[in-house]
UniProtKB/TrEMBL annotation:
PROSITE patterns: WRKY. PANTHER family: DISEASE RESISTANCE PROTEIN RP, OS02G0301800 PROTEIN. Belongs to the disease resistance NB-LRR family. GO terms for molecular function: ADP binding; DNA-binding transcription factor activity; sequence-specific DNA binding. Its main location: nucleus. It comes from the Eukaryota. GO terms for biological process: defense response to bacterium; innate immune response-activating signaling pathway; plant-type hypersensitive response. InterPro entries: Apaf_helical (IPR042197), Disease_R_plants (IPR044974), LRR_dom_sf (IPR032675), LRR_R13L4/SHOC2-like (IPR055414), NB-ARC (IPR002182), P-loop_NTPase (IPR027417), RX-like_CC (IPR038005), Rx_N (IPR041118). Pfam families: LRR_14 (PF23598), NB-ARC (PF00931), Rx_N (PF18052), WHD_DRP (PF23559), WRKY (PF03106). CDD domains: RX-CC_like (cd14798). This is WRKY domain-containing protein. Residues 794-862 form the WRKY domain.
Amino acid sequence: MDLVTGAMGNLVPKLLQLLGDEYNLQKSVRTQVRSLADELRSMHVALGKVSQAPHDRLDPQLKLWASEVREASYDMEDVIDTFFVRVDGGRQSVHADKGKVERLLEKMGNLFSLSKLKARRDIAGAIEDIKKQVDEIAKRRDRYKLDDLVANSTTVTSIDPRVLSLHTKVPDLVGINEPRDELITMLTMGDDHASNKKMKIVSIVGFGGLGKTNLAKVVYEKLTMDMNNCKAFVPVGQKPDLKKVLRDILLSLDKEDYMTKTNFIMSLDERQLISEIQDFLKEKRYFIVIDDIWEEPSWNVIRIALEDNNMGSKVIITTRYHNVAELANCTYQIKPLLPNTSKVLFYGRIFGSQDKCPESFSEISDKILKKCGGVPLAIITIASLLANKSDDITEWQEVCNSIGSGLSSSEDMYNNMTKILLLSYYDLSPHMKTCFIYLSIYPEDHKIRRDELIWKWICEGFIHAQKKDDDLFELGISYFNDLINRSLVQPVGSMGSVDGIDSCRVHDVIRDIICSLSKEENFITTSEDIEQVMSSKGRKLRRLYLNNTTWPKKDVSQVRSFSIFRPSIDSVPSFSCFDVLRVLDLQGCTLTDCQASMLCVGNLVHLRYLGLNGTGLKHVPRGIEKLHFLVVLKMSGSFVELPVSIFELKRLMCLEGVCCYPRPSNLLRNFASLKELWKLCIDNESRGALEELSKLTQLTKLGIQIKLQMDQRLSDAFINCLGNLPRLRSLWVEHDWCLKNNLIKWERWAPPPHLCSLSIIGDYSLRAVPEWWISPASLPRLTQLILSVVRPDQDIGAYADGYDWRKYGQKDVLSNRYPRGYFRCARRHDGGCQVTKTMQREDNDASVVCIRYLGKHNHDATPARESA
């Protein structure tokens, strides 16, 4: 499925599936299906060519025809999917030991049941109606001639390390040193005078794409290097939820404390949040960055919370508007990059360095850079586009000619910036365009989780296997990395993820563009645009994103995707009106008071994705066992126990945030398609599930909570099963603290090479760090390790784990009577090793020390003890 062709790519395979013997269609209907499939193939090819052309160059009649086909394709797919649901419901019996005769009788019963015969008659009539509709569209198509555009081929890619250097090595950003030093001088001027301790507020002003956020981030990191708390970097955005902004400030100032008070913080209104911030900041020196403020009223509210306590505090605000910037004590006007600096950035992205650029490309490069006007976002975006065309000067000429007059004039600056950024969009393949435009469903400045995004792409039908054995999730990672490589999204790092990247953000300038494209193609509808879409002839609500409490009063029967991201509602409507819903994401909705009867999803038979993270639900939604096409269930933060009936859902690939008790144990094998299971709970009734784990060979993420005493046989079986999970990237194992005799021999385990994150908590068999941790070569991707190590009497500072450490801090932590020690690798300064660790005795058992490592050593182990 893609932006222009809609569901057309899915239709032909589904039509051909109807020809299977198990659906027993009449001969005349089968003939119509074949004819229809042929015509749809032809339309799909034509639409593929349309999708390759810049949208602003298409003939208006051609746009209208493409829109008509796209809308029709959605309706056709809904009809066919409904037939599949009615005939077999996607059911796969969980009784694996049924005899052949019994299974044959069951199949014959399904084939001749009255309800299924009616479904076959209905599909015959529907196919005839679809055929008439397609014939009418085909006749109109003959009136237009499509240029023979060549579709771009796609490749499976990893993240280009040159792109990561643009985002992750913030202090080394091109051209950042001079403005950084100027801004630091403005912030610190007069600090030497003891009498001058007033709070200083400095604004950074400039249009979108100049690098205001990066500059603020560099200064923030440099001036807060030795601050453990009382610092915050908080985005605001164009349409801010000020309560969320104030909550984010509190969480950033002291996350460990306020994360334990989530319910308390969520209950506060704006005035109470301001008061809470003021109380926290009393008699404290703080450094706060408020990023991307658009309007004076927003800043005025935030400013009230930041009282001047004469402690020498610093505040930076970034904005694109001078009237907002002038509210600060002083203003820094960010400037475009100088020509030489622009070249360093441009050539570094394409060739690795300026001296590697062929001389024949110098002249055309100068022309392109002149049109980019020294704007970093434009330079990076156009360079990322040209990086894949670095050996063809003709293509460079075409790109240069496509840009237009450039960014020299402020009057048409936004239009020219848009034109530059759209070049990278048009260079995407059709399916990549769809995945990219889908990002418009997320709010401004939202941190988009990679794995969540990929699961939605899969459930929406945007990712298709190119070969028989293709893994859809791996393809999704490739798509995500491709968007990063093209600089269309900004990578956000995390120590415990593959390649250190687990999220992304969309620059607000780019988001404006994709929101405009999405609106024009009726791809995603926001609450503000519902009336406009419904009043347009031939348009229906397909994907709905709400950001307020107003539920649509119009027909939502054709809505395929429904998402809410802001914590602005406390109830949900009846879902009986959503006939063809595939994706339902209610994350952020406060549903703590909802009972199971209030959230019934049993009629959502098409549902693939159910996102209930952070809703606080106390029960799994009623009727979930009927969702036989469900692929993803997310309920993080709810700690809900799954009913046994959930094991009927054999298509599940992701279970997150729920307690899964396989009782009886052999039910676990029904989840053979699972890639993520978080978390599996093992007690005496489900003890056999530890051995059943070996059946889940597709697992990449696994969380286990062990609630039973394990004998040596079961412990060995557990280690053997883990050895049969070669795809694991993240493993979390927690033992109940009362279980002190579970002697798991972790040294016998050979961790898979893809492992990125490992947590072993409450295991009293751990007396030392396993040998495979000491050798960097054995686990090349492991960047997060959390261990509970038994150290009853020794000083934790004397604990040897194969590396030399330097202690740089200690802090008392809420809900633990023992302080937490902070350590850095001793080779941080002379060898550039960035690994850190924390050590703290467990409050409920002082003989156990929790050690948390972040990062990957860039050198071999050098056995030594820590020094304070």
